[in-house]
Every structure is written in structure tokens, then in C-alpha cells.
Design a protein that fits this description.
Elements lengths: L1 H12 L10 E4 L4 H4 L5 E4 L1 H6 L4 H8 L3 E4 L6 E4 L8 E5 L2 E2 L20 E6 L3 H4 L6 E6 L1 E4 L2 E11 L3 E11 L3 E12 L4 E2 L4 E2 L5 E15 L2 E16 L9 E17 L3 E17 L8 E19 L2 E17 L7 E13 L5 E12 L7 E9 L4 E12 L3 H5 L11 E14 L2 E20 L5 E24 L2 E16 L4 E2 L6 E11 L2 E10 L2 E2 L7 E2 L2 E13 L2 E8 L7 E3 L2 E2 L4 E9 L1
Parallel strand pairs: 5-8
Antiparallel strand pairs: 1-9, 2-7, 3-4, 5-6, 7-8, 10-11, 10-38, 11-12, 12-15, 13-14, 15-16, 16-17, 17-18, 18-19, 19-20, 20-21, 21-22, 22-23, 23-24, 24-25, 25-26, 26-27, 27-28, 28-29, 28-30, 30-31, 31-34, 32-33, 34-35, 35-38, 36-37
Length: 603
């Protein structure tokens, strides 16, 4: 019925003609642009998304300095942001932290890239605003709703090596009062690639997923807006096996997210009230021919209010209050029916009265059922020294809460766990000269009470607050952008140095590269476009003893697009041009050279 309704809506909306007027946009995550005034952020637009359309893993791997661990292409995937690991990276859907209440992290390959208008990346701690897990940074999956743009739509289809097929359709209609958006996407692949030199076949690597997104906004008056955004996602992900005689396994995921909000704006007050429902269902099959071996359901009910009171045009107090009720149910995991109530209160003050200096202070306290949450704070400022140099500083205390698995998994759950806490400082320097921009950001993170699962017996593991870890490093980004008549060029190169040291063992944490280099360039001349990507990762240790490691690698990608007509684009790309043999996780090799062709229609 949902599909019939959305298709019927598309037919009706297609009858409306476009209207010329001022464009207004509803940004559902209204904090991301605010934090970007002092924090280091990056925005990946729809053009960049389609350059790495296979998965969110590929997009973040090639267009950011986040290290992505992937158990073979399309399988379980997790990020390492500034060396801090997957559970210390927050995934934020339209302003709401959607990390799993069981695992405390997001599986990147179960967050379909084609469901979003843009992907934002915030570097550094953000727990005052975005909650548990926003330690190394956060990835923001954003949808937008526009007014006064009439009807427009996109159809994209891509076919690639290993029987890979990606497609999406998006349609939007808006007038002065109403905005409607619908999109559907589907990805699938046999994913049976081979690496002959290592006698590796990605057996049982197939995957498929489907997503539906529906958005609606309505202007009640000049000062009042109602909006609604929902998402349904369904995934079937098989796990690779190393021998054809091994038992094949798979993992199924069904996700539903719904967010309704009301925005009120006046000269003194801006208020954004959200009502949110999140549901995650998952089932693991130890044998794909038998019934599920384990599984679970997680439900979150959230009420979040974001109030800005303007003392003057350039200064304001921002009170963020949130209530969450989390409920879980496990199957064959020892987890019964855990429940958790929590109230979060954040207060921030922002001041931009000076033309050269902007600063803000923030504090937060969580009242969480079952454990004592730490007091959090943040302080940041940005100073414009002159036309070509700016500097900013960010200091914060962040945390990660114990998850339902940490607390209740049987055997092994530990009800005495304390939240991880960390202190962080960074200082960014921004230089600009004509078409060049250079950013340099050194940072330092000091973490204590790190939660780690350790062996208790030969067969049982349990989480403990064990480690103190120091993370420090340097991030640099150099970009060049220039437009000429009928042509434009955009290039960026980034370098990251990352040190993550266990203070007890004095060793680098596993799967954290010391050095990483990303290069991306896009060139457009009339109807033709070219892009080129390069990624280098240095060696990574596969355990915390530094005795085993993965070799460094350099991956090159390239693509071309042609627009034979204004609304038609044909694309072709080559991934891993040099046929590099590489792993991001031990034993799981990634594909060698592969290809994809695509067609994009705008209507």
C-alpha cells in the first residue's frame, strides 16, 4: 500500500508546472551549519555522491580522511575517525543520532548512500549536541525540503562489474506553501569478485538493499512550518566465506525512521520541535538454509526541542532538551527486554557581535536510567586575522555510553560499566590565496575508561573499562577551484597523520593507519566532465601488539560523464585502475580493477 500511495502521488504531482519564485529550504538538521562556524566540516554534494555511488563506504573512503574497515566489498563496514574506532563515530540522520542501541555504532553498508541529498562530515567531538559516540567525529545524512521550485525529478541507473546494479528515482514538488519529496533506491550485486594472486574468491558475498524516503513540509504561516521525513530500508547481506564447503551465512536488516517537526520563527525566538520514532530489526542466519540463529529489535521514542533565544541579532542562547525511551528485545543473545529512559539538557551561548571574532560555549548533562552520565562541555571560537588567514579553536569533553550489548549480553554483559569519557582540543588554521585554500588542523584526544571486550575464560568474553588511550594527529587540506568560460576545475588533496596509543601497552591501536592521503579532482568542459581520485593508506596493524600488519596501498579511480542533451547524462568509470591488491581488514581482499556505466535523467 505504501508503494502504491507514493507512485500515485508522483502521477498527481507531475501534473503541476514549475513556478518561478524565491526558494526557501527546510534544513531538518538545523545544528550542522551552526557548528560549522567554528568546527571543521565537509559537505559532499549529489555530484560527489554519484562518483562513488556503490556505497557510503566508498564515498567516505575516497572523499574523506576517515579510514573504512570493510570485511570484503559490501559486507560489514565500520569507520575509524581520527583513530577512535567505529563506536566513537556518530551517524546522524537529519539531526538525530541513529547509532544502534545494541552495538553503539552504525554499519556503513546498511546506510544506503542514495537515500540522501548530501552527506556532511563533522570532525572532532560533538557530544554536547549529538550525544553518545560523537567522539572522533560524526557523519550527517541529510534530506532537504524546498519551497517554490515546482516539479522536478531525477532517475539514475548504474550497472557495474560483478553483477552490480544501483538505481534511484527522486521526485519533488513544491509551491509557496507545500513541499513534497519522494525517493526510492535499490542496490544489488552478486559481488563474486576474484583475486587470483591470493587464491581469493569473494564467495557468498552477494547483497541487495532497498530504501524508500518520503518528505513533506507545509508553511502554516510566515512564522510556522510543519515538516515530516520518513525512511524505510530493507537489506539482505551475505557474509563471505573462504571455502566453498563452509556453511553460508547472511544478515537481514529492516529499518524504519520517522521524524515529524514544527518550526517557529520570530525576531527573538527560533524553536524546532521534533517527534521521532526509530526502529531497527535484524536477523542473523548461521546457515542461510535454516531459520535465524539470533536477532533483535530496537525501538527509540524521542522528543527533542531546540530553542534559540536571540539576545541581539548576533548573539543567542540555545537550549536543547531531549527525552528518549529506548527499548530492546533480543533473540538467542541472552538479551531479554532491556529498557532505558534518559533526559538530555544542553545549553549553548553563541556570540558573533564582533566582525572578526565569533565564539560559543556549551554544556550538557544527561539523566540516564541505569548509570551516571558525565558532565559535558564545549568551547570554541574563530578569529579572522585578515582577508587571507583565519584561525579557530575547539575544546570539548565527550562520551560514549555503554550499549545494550555491553550491559546485557549473556554470557558476558557487565552492568557495572562506566561511560567512556574523553577530552579533546584542536586548533585549525585556514589560509586563502586567489583560488587556493589551505587548512591545517592539529588535534589531541585523551580518553579514559575505554570499553573493551576481553576474554574472561577460554570461551567467554566480557566488556571492561580498561584502557586509557591518547589520540593525536594532523589533518591538512589544500583545494583549488576556478571557473572559466564553459569550463570549471575543482581539486582537493588531503593528508592525515594519526597516532592512537594505548597508554598501557604503548602500542598503536589496530586498523589505524599512520598516514593517509586523499586526492580528488573534477574538470568540466561544456558537455563533458572528468574526475580522478587517489587514495593512499600506510600499513595498519591487525592487533594491538604491532606484530602483524596489512601492507600499504594506493588506489586510483577515474570517470567521465557526457551530457548529450541538457537533461541526460551518461557516465563511465574505472575503479582501481592499477589492479592493486589490497585489504582493509585482514583476510578479506577488496576488488581489483572494475567498471561501471551509468545513465542519469533530469525531468
Amino acid at each position: 500500500m505504501k508503494r502504491i500511495f507514493t507512485l500515485f502521488s508522483l502521477v498527481i504531482l507531475h501534473q503541476f508546472s514549475a513556478q518561478e519564485s524565491l526558494i526557501d529550504t527546510v534544513y531538518i538538521d538545523n545544528q550542522f551549519n551552526k557548528v560549522g562556524r567554528t568546527a571543521k566540516i565537509s559537505n559532499l554534494n549529489s555530484v560527489q555522491i554519484l562518483e562513488n555511488s556503490t556505497s557510503l563506504s566508498d564515498l567516505l573512503r575516497f572523499q574523506s580522511n576517515i579510514y573504512i574497515k570493510e570485511n570484503g566489498r559490501g559486507s560489514t563496514s565500520s569507520p575509524s575517525f581520527r583513530g577512535t574506532g567505529a563506536s566513537r563515530t556518530a551517524f546522524v540522520w537529519n539531526g538525530i543520532n541513529v547509532n544502534s542501541i545494541f552495538l553503539g555504532q552504525g554499519d556503513i553498508n546498511n546506510l544506503n548512500l542514495l537515500s540522501y541529498e548530501n552527506v556532511g562530515i563533522k570532525f572532532g567531538g560533538g557530544s554536547v549536541i549529538y550525544g553518545s559516540g560523537a567522539v572522533g567525529g560524526s557523519v550527517h545524512l541529510n534530506n532537504t525540503l524546498d519551497f517554490d521550485k515546482g516539479f522536478h525529478g531525477i532517475l539514475f541507473s548504474e550497472y557495474g562489474s560483478f553483477g552490480t546494479f544501483n538505481s534511484f528515482i527522486k521526485a519533488k514538488y513544491s509551491n509557496a506553501k507545500l513541499s513534497f519529496s519522494f525517493s526510492a533506491n535499490h542496490s544489488q550485486s552478486e559481488n563474486d569478485y576474484k583475486v587470483a594472486e591470493k587464491n581469493y574468491i569473494n564467495r557468498n558475498g552477494r547483497y541487495q538493499n532497498t530504501g524508500f524516503n518520503l518528505g513533506l513540509a507545509y508553511k502554516i504561516s510566515d512564522n510556522n512550518e510543519f515538516y515530516w521525513q520518513s525512511q524505510h530500508y530493507d537489506s539482505d547481506q551475505h557474509y563471505p566465506i573462504f571455502d566453498e564447503n563452509q556453511i553460508k551465512t547472511k544478515y537481514l536488516v529492516q529499518t524504519f525512521r520517522s521524524l515529524a517537526g514544527w518550526k517557529f520563527n520570530s525576531d527573538k525566538i527560533k524553536n524546532d520541535l521534533k517527534l521521532v520514532y526509530l526502529e531497527d530489526n535484524f536477523q542473523y542466519f548461521g546457515d542461510i538454509d535454516k531459520s535465524k540463529s539470533s536477532g533483535g529489535t530496537g525501538k527509540q521514542y524521542i522528543v527533542r526541542n531546540d530553542l534559540d533565544y536571540f539576545v541581539s541579532k548576533q548573539s543567542s542562547f540555545n537550549l536543547i532538551s531531549e527525552y528518549q525511551y529506548n527499548q530492546g528485545e533480543g533473540y538467542q543473545s541472552g538479551i531479554q527486554n532491556p529498557k532505558r529512559n534518559q533526559v538530555n539538557l544542553s545549553l549553548l551561548y553563541r556570540n558573533g557581535n564582533s566582525a572578526k571574532f565569533y565564539w560559543e560555549l556549551g554544556s550538557k548533562y544527561d539523566f540516564v536510567e541505569g548509570y551516571e552520565s558525565p558532565f559535558l562541555f564545549s568551547a570554541s571560537g574563530k578569529y579572522s586575522v585578515n582577508d587571507w588567514y583565519q584561525t579557530s579553536i575547539n575544546i570539548s569533553r565527550n562520551f560514549r555510553a555503554p550499549t545494550f550489548n555491553d550491559l546485557y549480553w549473556q554470557p558476558g554483559g557487565n552492568l557495572d560499566l562506566k561511560p567512556e569519557t574523553s577530552y579533546q582540543a584542536e586548533m585549525s588554521h585556514y589560509f586563502s590565496y586567489k583560488n587556493f585554500k589551505l587548512g591545517i588542523t592539529p588535534y589531541y584526544i585523551k580518553m579514559k575508561d575505554m570499553i573493551q571486550w576481553i576474554p574472561i575464560t577460554s570461551s567467554n568474553w566480557s566488556p571492561r573499562n580498561v584502557n586509557k588511550v591518547d589520540f593525536y594527529g594532523l589533518e591538512t587540506d589544500l583545494s583549488f577551484n576556478k571557473n572559466w568560460t564553459n569550463q570549471k576545475l575543482s581539486s582537493q588533496i588531503g593528508y592525515s597523520y594519526t597516532q592512537s596509543t594505548d597508554l598501557e601497552t604503548k602500542k598503536q591501536l589496530s586498523y589505524v593507519p599512520f598516514h593517509q592521503i586523499n586526492f580528488n579532482t573534477d574538470y568540466q568542459y561544456k558537455i563533458a566532465g572528468l574526475f580522478f581520485q587517489a587514495l593512499y593508506n600506510s600499513k595498519r596493524f591487525t592487533d594491538n601488539t604491532e606484530s602483524n600488519f596489512l601492507e600499504d596501498y594506493l588506489i586510483l579511480n577515474a570517470g567521465i560523464t557526457i551530457n548529450p542533451q541538457k537533461n541526460i547524462q551518461i557516465g563511465f568509470k574505472v575503479n582501481n585502475i592499477t589492479d592493486e591488491i589490497y585489504e582493509t581488514v585482514d583476510y578479506y581482499f577488496m576488488p581489483k580493477r572494475n567498471y561501471a556505466v551509468s545513465l542519469k535523467l533530469n525531468f
